Amino acid sequence: MFLNVLKKIILLIISLAFCNSLYAQDKERLIKISDLDSLHDEFYGQASEESYIIHNKLLRQSKKLSYTKGILSAYKSLMWQHGVSSRANLDSVLHYADLFETKIATKSIQADTSLIKELKLPEYYLNKGQILANGFGLPEQGLESYFKVYPLIPKGNIKLSIAYNISISEIYYHKFQYDKALEVLTPLLKDTVGIGSFTKKRLLKNISANYVHKDMPEKSYTMHKALLDLAIKDNDIDGIWWTKNRLANDYFRLGDVQKAIDSALAVRKYCIENNTHQLIFNNTAYLSTFYHAAGNLDKAIAYRKEALQLASGSEYKKDTYDRLAEYYTEKKQYLNAIEVYKKKDELVDSLRSNEKKALSSYIDSNIKLLKEKQKSQQILFDMELLEIKNKKQELYYLSISAILVSIILLLGSVLLFRKYKKGEKVIEVLKSNEKKLLEEKIMLRENELEASAIALSQRIETLTLIKNELDEIKKPLIPKLEEAKRKIDNLIRSASDMSIITKRIESEYPTMSAKLLNRYPNLSDTQIRYCLLTKMNLSIKETATILNVTPDTVKVARSRLKKRLDIPSEMSIKMFLDKLSKE
Prior knowledge:
Blueprint lengths: L1 H25 L6 H11 L5 H16 L3 H17 L5 H15 L2 H5 L1 H7 L1 H15 L3 H8 L11 H17 L3 H8 L11 H17 L3 H17 L3 H17 L3 H17 L3 H17 L3 H14 L3 H17 L3 H57 L1 H80 L7 H17 L2 H11 L3 H8 L5 H11 L4 H8 L3 H14 L8 H10 L1
Helix pairs in contact: 2-3, 2-4, 3-4, 4-5, 4-8, 5-19, 8-9, 8-10, 9-10, 10-11, 10-12, 11-12, 12-13, 13-14, 14-15, 14-16, 15-16, 16-17, 17-18, 18-19, 20-21, 20-22, 20-25, 25-26
């Protein structure tokens, strides 16, 4: 009973506090628009708790005043705040980015070029891409944001162009494509005259980072020395110690482990004395690596565990877990190594979950943008429809006249088209009939020639049989019989005269020999004869009789001819010659 009463009292207190908060917000004194802009400019880019409160206040005030620029500026600032501050949260980043981009996509804002210019859209998309790629380890989503930057870069703005290229190189860096990153970055060194110290230092830092990962300490050392000179020139104390820390790593990679440890300890002392937390993680990680190389596993593990507590980014934590597990394994503390690997797996699972969230949010944002575009198009369509209705009376008679003229022209066109089609059909029929007659005539002449050749073959065969029978009569020698034999031989020779036969065949196939010789210039006269006789569809026996050779000779000759003409095995010589004659 007492617990129930206590719960009710607590709920009542919470409700009163909430209502009081709402009332206080409602009664919050309105700020002038000029003061809103000044506050935004003053706190933009900061990651403190105070800036977080200020940007939320600016958002509330801008909404009450219906001040579009103030609302958009607050969305942009809160997106940055949730990406880089101690309250870093991917869902919040994507939420405010979605609110900003959805509002930007509306037609009225897009038409206001001055507002778009004041909001610095290229810088916004660069910041968003850097938060996703560098802060949350989502290079693909970061690259998607960078792609929106390039069309917005004003012509001749070298500083923004270099910033864009540096951001693209960072994507290559995250994907371990260091050569491609250097291809993008190295040419930019030529255009550093008028870009300012900050951009130049960022460029040198990115180039040196890629050289570090390519294990080229002599190159990274040169870049870091140039960075140190710039930092000293600008009296940039943080930049000086950051560069000294990187130089300690160069000493290590160049082989001087003790100098690397001494340099890193000097940086560590500065960080502790000046409460510089941003630099201490890298310094601690370096010391762990250096002591591991020096063979001091206890210090290597101690510094690596400290680095794990200081690591802010997921990618840094993942690498730190790997190194720590490696050191535990070397020291044969396997249970500790297993525990570290478990924590690393949990981190990796969390990263995968973040990637899914980012992808889902990206899809949702695109759908929202598409819906906004559809709404804009619908409004535009409705306006155009209204204009058409207003002009409808003026265009009515003109439309009727145009329709009547169109109908008349259409009917005339249809009639002409029908006549044209009928004429085409008549021509096609005439052509078809002419073709059929020509084909029939060719077939008839081929049949006549084939019949003549067969009859000739039969006559030669008959004469040959008679001659053979007469040759069997050996004795007595009869002069008239010998004279008859000579006459029969002459008849067989004259009947087998291929020059006469060839002329007759070529009279029917006037281009066949020319086509054969043009395509196969090495064909002999005998091979051409075989081709012509085969074209006439004569059998092996009939061909052998005409040529006064054995059937086996014809078979061998045809086989060789097929090879010479390179005819496929599944195609006959006759089919090949028919195809050739039609070409």
